[in-house]
Amino acid sequence: MTANLPWLPAVLALAHVLLSVVAILFISARRRPTTAIAWALLIIFVPYLGALAFFLVGFSRLPRRRREKQREVSRAILDRTEGLDRVGHRDEWPAWLGSAVRLNEELGALPMVGGTRAELIDDYDAAIAAIVADIDTAEQYVHVEFFILTLDATTEPFFAALERARARGVTVRVLSDHLMSILYPPRKATLGRLAAMGAEWHGMLPLRPLRGQWQRPDLRNHRKLVVIDGRVGHTGSQNMIAAHYGKKKAIRRGLRWKEVMVRLEGPVVRELDAVFVTDWFSETDELLPLDTSPVVLPDDPTLLDAQVLPSGPSFENDNNLKLYTTLIHKAEKQVSITSPYFVPDESIQLAIITAASRGLLVELYVSEIGDQFFVYHAQRSYYEDLLRAGVRIYLYQAPTVLHSKHFTIDDDVSVVGSSNMDIRSFSLNMEVSVMVQGAEFVQRMRAIEATYRAHSRELSLDEWVRRPWPEKARDSLARLTSSLQ
Questions:
Q1: Closest of 41, 62, 43, 38 to residue 53, by C-alpha
Q2: Which of 96, 76, 88 is nearest to 267 (CA)?
Q3: What is the pTM of this model?
Q4: Is 268 exposed, middle or buried (0-12, 13-18, 19+ CB in 10 A)?
């Protein structure tokens, strides 16, 4: 064939060069160097498949209209309620916290607020029971938002509570991730139950190209939250599904996910509800009213200061990445991190290693086993550098999958929410975090971390460097895939 078309190889070679040059110039714009290099190399060495992969999953921001909706709600929040930005214990903050609070407010439009009651719940069934009890007190509305929402034996009480609320005339609005609702059956039974009770459900970030609803498929809404009447809120790491996630392989292996949720009362619940209102507006074009009644803080020294930080591809900045990096650099005594999927970008990894090198106690709690092959092996590739810097790594023993997502800084500040310490949560997933200031709350979080240590084994550098070379190879290869985002 080339004999008849002698010019074809030259044309293909020229097309390859032009594609590579265009890719390098286009991809390098506003991307981390490691990400840009990974994509460029893929396109150079596997040109056409690499280019196709990039156009499918290479764009890390949501469509413009979606981002405009985020800005619209952010502007409404900035014209916020009188007194919402009051805090009760500013004089007790560590000197460095004020700048982190200011950063959060600039990124997510939500201030630090006082008057907060916060209860940590680290038992799977107890977390659902607490949500059910609060739904049974609802008088006006229940707002539900979960990455995974499935009707099963474990979640039946939750759906029954929503039914009772609807029978009382309470408005029930439900959001769950569109793709996860397909991947985690029974979709028909779940949505049928919601429809039968009169709840209004919408899928988040739907993938319906024929309806003009399309974005990068792996940009997902990973948030988990419930708000009742603007009085009580729940958020954290736990999805509304059985603790084995309904996975046949997990059931055979006896796996069970370990979670942490936080129950909130006080003005901070308005901020959590604002996150729901934003997502509801994005999916329905209906902008629900925000609570603008004046805030008066009760005179109670036991109440805490808290700030909600939404993040994700609807924002122009990696909000949670900036917060987490700032807090780790500000730490003076201790940093304790729990993350089931630990695939940090360069800034987080450097901040953690620097903290350990400064002589701080730095702890990382992760699972001994993984439920996602590439993420599990990618995160293991970071352990050696951490161990050499003095980071103490605790492996939560099987068959439990440690799925909690939180960290503590010194004796003053905790962050808990839906966000992992990984590149996906920093750039690709929509997440929600709550930063809480208060020594008592940190102590409660440290008590949970102590239970992790009791069920973990500490990883040593000597053990790690002696692991078999096939494991090292898998870890290194998986790490390369983490940069393709």
A1: 43
A2: 88
A3: 0.88
A4: buried
